[in-house]
Amino acid sequence: MISKKIEALLNQQVELEASSSQYYLAMASWAEIKGYNGVSKFLYTHSDEERTHMLKLINFINERGGHGVVPALKAPPASFKGIQEIFEQILKHEIHVSTEINKLVERCLSEKDYTTHNFLQWYVSEQIEEEALARNVLDKLNLIGNDKGGMYLFDRDLETLSTQQDKKGK
Ligand code: OFO
């Protein structure tokens, strides 16, 4: 059984994962209409992953005697300045998500809720990966600069990356 406080905090995390999914979905759709097929595929996959993160939380809350609540969400932005800006926003967003996960972990320790603490370890590792991935993509974009040919190859690379993510089946 989880405490009311932990249940509320986990539900806040449900909302954050759901809004991450919507955010990346908006980015994917924008990239698609701008002709960045690889980037958009990568972002669609990323959006799906975030939905999985949300579902995992809902299922856990329910298993532990709470109620995973489906949240109302604010609309994400519809357009973006460019690909660089998108990945900068992703990195910023993921750093924020990591901070929230860490707060939750701390709270579990102070309440001696070791079961939820254990469950959250998956998210702790996932955040390390997500931040590293965003940094890695930004490094590539910085190398490319304004080179159009480089951007074409980058877009193709991201398509491959999204297929790998798909296979990982998160
Ligand atoms: Fe759910 O990992 Fe990103 O936000």
Per-chain topology:
Layout: H1 4-33, H2 37-63, H3 83-110, H4 114-144, H5 148-168
The structure holds hydroxy diiron-OXO moiety.
State which percent range the strand residues make up: under 5%
**Global outline:** elongated
Helices and strands, in N-to-C order? Answer: HHHHH
Please tally the β strands and state the result: 0
Give a short synopsis of this structure.
It is built from five helices and no strands.
Write a structural description.
- The structure is a single chain.
- The chain has 170 residues and is mainly alpha-helical.
- Helix content is 81%, strand content 0%.
- It is built from five helices and no strands.
- It has one domain (4-168): Ferritin (Up-down Bundle).
- The mean pLDDT is 95.
Keywords:
single chain; 170 residues; mainly alpha; Ferritin; 5 helices; elongated; binds hydroxy diiron-OXO moiety
